Amino acid sequence: MVVFGGTFDPVHVGHLHGAHHVSKSLGGAIVTMMVAPNPQLRKPPVASLHDRWTMLLLACKSNPVLQASRFEDGRDGPTRTVETLRDLTRTNDVPIVWAIGMDAFQNVSSWYRAEELPEIVSFFVLKRMSPSSDEVPIGFSRVKEPGQLLESPGGVFVSFKPMLDVSATEIRRKVRDGCDVSESIHPEVCKHIIKNRLYRG
Ligand code: ATP
Which atom of ligand 1 is least distant from the CA of 4? Predict the structure, then answer.
């Protein structure tokens, strides 16, 4: 199972392009795009969970390899990936690959109960414009081929394919400033933002 988790505030072409790259690298695997209701290690989202979920659905609906998921919804308190992974392993007996940008990957060691992660997940790391690091969290080891991530947990594959230089922060800023963001988001997401006057400040 391949999961691409995010705040998706809003989902943008960088996420979609990254998820496609992960799918292709893993032999056409379906990528579960999982919205985090209440992410712990960052500022609270600007858009409501309802809007972030609606935008994710719109961006994924015509895309056969991307599947929007609100699996993390329904638990009280902060969204903790280790708890999500434990819940997923109860219902799936295949190894879980978590796709993640290099910026977020560098914080993995500070995640809640991070020491449990090597036994339940592998990471497919996408390079972003932020600085890269060769370090992997304790208990993980680098693998040379992405397909190895599907064999057992505890692996880290770092992809050096250039990703798109897009971030949700930049999109929110541009919308607030009245700039055009249509090149950075799916057309249906763009319509949803305009219609509901999201990110206007
Ligand atoms: P923000 O700017 O609000 O922090 P973001 O654009 O980083 O948002 P998130 O929803 O926080 O988006 O990111 C979800 C995941 O997608 C993270 O692992 C992040 O590193 C990754 N990601 C975000 N933007 C890109 C991109 N342009 N290319 C590849 N991965 C990305």
Answer: 15
